[in-house]
């Protein structure tokens, strides 16, 4: 799915707190010295790493086809800087993907975990801002705690078509373009994960809001994501794509998402899922069938996301 802006610079970091700083330093040195976890990941059908970390500070990596793509610079060595919107649409594989333009190639010896990240309620607080718009425009007042299902027409007591019109009206307001705040902890953790993960966005958002979505991501998460994929779900026009299909199209091994339906769909496709229920406050995220799936793990904040990702690579 789709609270003040985090700082833009990332230094050395400790996901477990100061009491275990020694253990974290040991893990970090191990990561830098040896990046071949092999047998430790055999039990994780979808996570396989080999090679060694790229120790350079270049934001570019060589691909198998000898092309190169930009990626986030490692936060252990370098600060991030906002750079303006650089997203360009391409349609080589699908009209619903946005990629950053390629640049000069730089050699890279290692492979990273390919991670798909949802937008609404995972990167940004979409429902909170939507509620403010609905209250002003329709004098209908709601809180996040009322959304027992992520289908707005059921909460608003209107038809599905009416709900879709209201949401598209929301897209044309400042509540959407500048009112959605990042989820606390997301930027810092994603900077940290970028040292051993290739991050891309996979959102159910509609094609009609591609530009606004890309601007928002570049503003709050500059340089972190290689690609942005749009599912175009609940759109007034155009075809939609299942998240599992999108994830498979670029080899995603992990999905971070708040929707149990998408979690089950991707888990059944062999993709490991971190089901994101921020501070245990998302009613729609409570789903026993999803949580009982062997490839689905419930998390309640971005620090827990970080801990699970690290545990999967160093176990």
Automatic annotation (TrEMBL):
InterPro entries: 5'(3')-deoxyribonucleotidase, 5_3-deoxyribonucleotidase-like, HAD-like_sf, HAD_sf
Pfam families: NT5C
Alphabetical list of SUPFAM superfamilies matching this protein: HAD-like
Domain of life of the native organism: Eukaryota
Full protein name: Tac7077
Species classification: Eukaryota, Viridiplantae, Streptophyta, Embryophyta, Tracheophyta
